[in-house]
Every structure is written in C-alpha cells, then in structure tokens.
Amino acid sequence: AQGGAQANVPAPTARMQVYQKLRGGFGADPALWWVSGVLWGKRSVGHAQILLHVQGLHFVWLGVGQEGGVVQEMREAAIWSGPEGGPPIETWTNPFNGLNCPPPHFSRRQTLTFTASGGLKPPTEMDDILKYAGGVAAPEIVGDTIWQGQALVMKTRVAEPAAGSDPLAYPGPVRTQTQTMTLQGARADIETQRVQFTPATISVQSLDSWPGWMRMGPTEGHVMLQLHGKKLAAPSEAPAALLADFQARHPGWLQRKGA
Question: What are the tens digits of pLDDT across the range 62-81?
C-alpha cells in the first residue's frame, strides 16, 4: 500500500485526489490521526445510552492500486475509559446485563481498496462476507471549506462458538457493521499544487452488532460509535495523557508507525 506511482497507470480521479490529500499524509509518510468519542448502546426496544469513552491514534497510508485505484492501509490502536473519559479502565459493568465486561484496549489493521472513481472493491477472500459495499463520495465545497464522505457496509457470517467458550460472547450467525466518516479541510489546502501537509478533521459514526466482549448473547440491539478527530502534524500534538497511556500499553507503537 506504500508503493509509488506505477508506469502506464491512469491517475486517480479528482474525487480520489481530494481524498488522498484529506485522508493521507505528507509525501511518502503516513498520516497520523487522533480520534476521540463515545460508544453508545441500545436494545432494539429501548433507548440509547452512552456506555464508554474511547480515544485512539491511527496511521493511514495511501498508495496506487490497480487501474488508477487507491489502496488504503490503516493501523489503529485505542484505549477505553469511563463514559466521561479519564484514565483507562480495566473493569466495566455492562448496564444492559449487569455483567463484568472488561473492554479490550485494542490494536488492529484494516486495508481498503478503492477504484479510481471511488468505489470500494471487495477483498479477495469473501467466504464469510455476505455484503461488502461503500466508497468515497464526491467532495462538497461551501465557501472556503471542503467536505468529503466515505462509507463501509459489511455483513459477515459468524462461526459457531467452540466447545467450552462463553455462549454470551456469541452474537448469532450474522454480524453487521456500518461505518460512515466525513473529512473536512480548507479549499485552499486542497487546490494548492505544493506538496505539503494538509490539515484536516474527521467525524465518524458507526452502527454495529453487539461486540462479543459485551456478552449480550442473543439480545437484539446494537452499538454506535460517535467520534471526532484531526490529522496531526506530529505525535506531540496528541494529548499528553494519551501518549503516556500508549507508551505503557503499546510500547514502541508510535515509533514503529503501528507495526
């Protein structure tokens, strides 16, 4: 995903060129993003409530794919805290079932492949994927501000739980995930021909099945992530407390760019 331009490959469309500037980094370097927000939960017949606060960092590489497409690699790590934020938590009582459900302070990778026009290409391995759709929207400009959306919709099969595993961690035979994000930047930064760091902010919303660690079993409902964030010019721009937590929980993660 980090390779340079390929010979005889058409350039990405204007839509994807805007996306590369807003979402990507400076030159060959990845973009570093800080995000923060809350996790909501809702039973199908109940009202939504805030469950936890989450804060994280992620690196994004954008490279040239086949036929002028764009390959995006993301490496992300996040830390959970109580609903109002504060220090990381190791235990948490799920208000929906009264059970202790420690939230995982996780790190993960994700690769997305876009066509030159912004469509989302399905992964090579599709055995467990029932639905895979989304892509990059056309940018919108009002005055000096530019916005651009990106969406991912997935429906996957979930394997039957192994013998002796926690039955409440099994959400059922199907899991769904819908994620939308909106990038925002300055029109002048997008239109300039100079190669430079492009400041941008991000908002993310997701609607997902219960994660297994919440131990909701067959209970109908879902969780919703509500995040905001910004692209960082340097790691030092991240909150100092978060940097200290990352060093303690993910030693060397920043220095290795998420590796």
Answer: 988 878 789 999 999 999 99
Return the structure tokens found at 156: 């996957």
The CB density around residue 61, as the number of other CB atoms within 10 Å, is 21
Report the pLDDT averaged over residues 126-130.
Answer: 85
DSSP-assigned letter for residue 26: S
Q: Which residues does 182 contact at the CB level (< 8 Å), separation at least 6?
A: 147, 148, 149, 202, 203
Whole-angstrom Cα distance, residue 102 to residue 256? 27
Is the Cβ–Cβ distance between 208 and 223 less than 8 Å? yes
Half-sphere exposure of 152 (CA within 13 A, CB side): 19
Q: What is the pLDDT of residues 170-187, one digit of tens each?
A: 988 999 999 999 999 999
Whether the pLDDT of residue 6 is over 60: the answer is: no
Which uninterrupted H or E stretch holds 33? strand 31-43
Question: Is there a contact between 79 and 105 (Cβ–Cβ < 8 Å)?
Answer: yes
Distance of CA 216 to the CA centre of its chain: 23
Q: Which two structure tokens, joined as six digits, stand for 76?
A: 């992300």
Cβ contact 217:243 at 8 Å: no
Q: Residue 245 — φ and ψ, nearest 5°? A: -65, -40
* 20: Cβ contacts below 8 Å, ≥ 6 apart: 12, 62, 70
Q: What is the pLDDT of residues 196-242, one digit of tens each?
A: 789 999 999 999 999 999 999 999 999 999 999 999 999 999 999 99
